[in-house]
């Protein structure tokens, strides 16, 4: 395998202003790392011809592969082609298939194409043109003075399509690495990153192929398994074996793989058990219900939710007694249980789940911000409530309450 240096250049003033994050560079680095291609520099440059030209010249002097994202659009500040032409003197021409595609798009939309849209069909003469199947501007691969330049749209979904379909196969041949590399993500809930790593320390220390990488994400802890071999069957076998080894140790915390979410797994379990869910939310204000109904097909198992943020709503709509509120308060085990019981009955569901607490920043009923109660009531007669003290600002506490509610519900359904 050839040892090559790669570099990314992202073109766009909006990146420098922080209006959008440069997620393209992060994703591209992850992809190239899988194929043993070393990424030495990330550069972000604004929409200025001379500064883009300077960034290109510097990259040309130090990298073997330069991947550029952005600046291929129809407006006057899309200057990627012009800047590269300044350093290469390569001729720019209109790519007929791309132009036909752009014209067909506007015709289908029954809208008038402005002349500047023709800019998107311009490519360097002699370049390998990459068909953008989800957008307008094509990508390009250009060889210049023994360096490889790859130009891609800045829109993430367009860039990712071209990388997967064209760029990675091209780079595999260029570097001589034609191994099959495959990754899968294992997702866990109810266990922290450090605890997960501790439980799996012997497996991690002995890793070689597949490699094992524990990662903390916003809504869960994940393990990325990456295997490589020249045989697809062998890669799948390696991933399957390591997954089984991991789940033998921490399977009780496992909920899904790759794009699966905990809410999608909850909906699947509800369908499997022919159960229905109803939700009563105070501090989360509908966030938990929103998570559940975001899953396709949730209407068959999610009867609905009641946002009972105000005390009078808890009384009048949900049926929490005035006496209970006076004696125990709305931030209490007793109130959470009644909320779960009553929402289940009122919405004719198999399971009721509720959450009540203090999001902050101020105290409520003498209770500090972060105090939260989550309760579940099942038509089997099982009911319970759990107490938590979350840290963070108001929205962080609401979000953590939602995630913990999903975790509790998943574990209850899983049994």
Automatic annotation (TrEMBL):
Keywords: Hydrolase. GO terms for molecular function: nicotinamide-nucleotide amidase activity. SMART domains: MoCF_biosynth. CDD domains: cinA. The keyword Hydrolase applies. InterPro entries: CinA, CinA-like_C, CinA_C, CinA_KH, Competence-induced_CinA, MoaB/Mog-like_dom_sf, MoaB/Mog_dom. Residues 7-174 form the MoaB/Mog domain. It comes from the Bacteria. It holds the Pfam family CinA_KH. Coiled coil: none annotated. Gene3D superfamilies: 3.30.70.2860, CinA-like, MoaB/Mog-like domain. The keyword Hydrolase applies. HAMAP family: CinA_B (MF_00226_B). Belongs to the CinA family. This is Putative competence-damage inducible protein. It comes from Virgibacillus natechei. The gene is cinA.
């Amino acid at each position: 395998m050839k040892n090559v240096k790669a570099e990314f250049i992202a073109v766009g003033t909006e990146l420098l202003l922080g209006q959008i994050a440069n997620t393209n560079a992060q994703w591209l680095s992850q992809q190239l790392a899988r194929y043993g291609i070393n990424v030495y520099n990330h550069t972000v440059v604004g929409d200025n011809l001379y500064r883009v030209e300077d960034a290109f010249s510097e990259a040309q002097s130090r990298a073997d592969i330069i991947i550029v994202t952005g600046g291929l659009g129809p407006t006057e500040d899309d200057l990627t082609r012009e800047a590269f032409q300044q350093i290469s003197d390569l001729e720019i021409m209109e790519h007929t298939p791309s132009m036909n595609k752009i014209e067909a798009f506007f015709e289908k939309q029954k809208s008038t194409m402005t002349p500047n849209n023709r800019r998107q069909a311009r490519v360097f003469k002699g370049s390998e043109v990459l068909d953008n199947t989800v957008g307008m501007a094509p990508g390009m691969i250009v060889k210049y003075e023994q360096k490889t330049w790859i130009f891609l749209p800045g829109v993430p979904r367009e860039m990712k399509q071209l990388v997967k379909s064209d760029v990675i196969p091209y780079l595999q041949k260029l570097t001589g690495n034609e191994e099959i590399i495959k990754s899968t993500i294992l997702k866990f809930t109810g266990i922290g990153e450090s605890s997960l790593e501790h439980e799996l320390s012997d497996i991690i220390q002995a890793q070689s192929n597949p490699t094992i990488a524990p990662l903390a994400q916003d809504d869960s802890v994940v393990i990325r398994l990456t295997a490589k071999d020249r045989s697809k069957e062998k890669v799948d076998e390696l991933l399957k074996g390591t997954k089984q080894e991991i789940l033998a140790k921490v399977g009780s915390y496992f909920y899904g793989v790759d794009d699966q979410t905990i809410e999608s797994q909850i909906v699947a379990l509800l369908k499997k058990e022919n159960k229905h869910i109803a939700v009563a939310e105070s501090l989360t204000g509908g966030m938990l219900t929103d998570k559940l109904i975001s899953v396709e097909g949730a209407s068959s198992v999610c009867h609905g939710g009641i946002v009972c943020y105000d005390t009078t709503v808890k009384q009048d709509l949900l049926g929490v007694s005035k006496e209970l509120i006076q004696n125990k308060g709305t931030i209490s085990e007793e109130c959470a249980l009644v909320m779960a019981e009553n929402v289940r009955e009122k919405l004719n569901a198999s399971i009721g789940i509720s959450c009540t607490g203090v999001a902050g920043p101020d105290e409520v009923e003498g209770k500090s911000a972060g105090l939260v109660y989550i309760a579940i009531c099942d038509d089997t007669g099982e009911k319970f409530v759990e107490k938590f003290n979350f840290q963070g600002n108001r929205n962080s506490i609401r979000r953590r309450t939602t995630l913990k509610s999903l975790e509790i519900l998943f574990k209850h359904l899983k049994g």
